[in-house]
Amino acid sequence: MSGPLLTRIDHVGIACRDLDEAAARYAELFGLTVVCRETNDEQGVHEAMLEVSLAPAGGSYVQLLQPTRPDSPVGRFLDRRGEGIHHIGYGVDDVEAALATLDGQGVRLIDRRPRHGSMGAAIAFLHPRDLGGVLTELVQARPGQARD
Amino acid sequence: MSGPLLTRIDHVGIACRDLDEAAARYAELFGLTVVCRETNDEQGVHEAMLEVSLAPAGGSYVQLLQPTRPDSPVGRFLDRRGEGIHHIGYGVDDVEAALATLDGQGVRLIDRRPRHGSMGAAIAFLHPRDLGGVLTELVQARPGQARD
C-alpha cells in the first residue's frame, strides 16, 4: 500500500430511538449544529448529520440514526444492545478502489459495490467480524459538497 | 454557549483482547501507523494510538485498548459485549471549563476533575446514561504535542 487508505474520521454513527430528542441534546450540550437531515429508505434510517469540525481534507460529523422500521439493521441493533455507538465511518479517496484492495486482503465486505450515503457520499460497509467487532464504513465524499 | 464545545473527533476508542494483533490489522489493512503506545494503570489499559489524520486544529486517532486486568472498565466491557467500539473522544479547548459547563447543565460526570489521558492529554469521561448510551470523553491535548 502506498499510503494510508483512510484519510480521516468522517463520522461516528449513533443509534437512537428519537432523532429529534438526540439532535436537540447534542445541540444544547455541545453546541453542534445539524447540517443535513435525510431519510435513507434502503438502509431504513432517518438520520441527522451534526458537524464537529470542517478541515480542508474533509469534515467530521456525529451521525444520529433512528430506524424507520424495527427490522432494519439499526432497529435490530437497538433491540439487541440499546442506544449507543453503532459504527464508525472513515474518509477514503476512492471507495471502489478501497473495496477492491480490502477484498484482495480477504476482508469480508457487506457492500461489494458503493451505496448512497449521507450528504451525497458513496459509501460501503465492512463486516465487523474481520475488524475486531467494529462495524466500519468507508466514505467517499461527494465532490464539491460541504463535507469536502 | 458562545461556540461549539467540541472542536473535533479526537479518537474512537476500541476494546480488543490482543493489542498487538489489533494494531497489526489496522496497519496492514488500512495503512495506519502507531504513533504512541503506553499503559495507563489508573484506567487499567494498555493502549495504542494510530493516527488517521493530522489537521491544524488537532489529530484524529484510532485508540486500541486492551485491559490490564479483567475487572477494569474495558475488561468488564469485553466480558459483557465482546470486542468493539468502547467510547468516542472529542477535542475541547479547555476540559475544566467544559466540565463546569456540562455539570451546570445537569450532565452526569464520571470524572469531576481531569485525568491523565493518552499522549499527555487532560481528559474526562461523561456518563453514557445522559448521552444516549454513548460513553463520551473530552480531550484537551497537551500543548505542543503532535496531536495539537
Secondary-structure map:
The structure is a homodimer of 148-residue chains.
Chain A: E1 8-15, H1 19-30, E2 33-40, E3 45-55, E4 58-67, H2 73-81, E5 84-91, H3 95-104, E6 115-116, E7 122-126, E8 136-140
Walkthrough of the structure:
Two copies of one chain form a homodimer. With 148 residues, chain A is an alpha+beta fold. Chain A has one domain (8-140): 2,3-Dihydroxybiphenyl 1,2-Dioxygenase, domain 1. Helix content of chain A is 21%, strand content 39%. Chain A is built from three helices and eight strands; from the N terminus they run βαβββαβαβββ. Chain A has helices spanning 19-30, 73-81, 95-104; strands spanning 8-15, 33-40, 45-55, 58-67, 84-91, 115-116, 122-126, 136-140. Chain A has an eight-stranded mixed beta sheet with strand order 2-3-4-1-5-8-7-6. The longest helix of chain A has 12 residues, at 19-30. Chain A is globular and about 45 Å long. The mean pLDDT of chain A is 93.
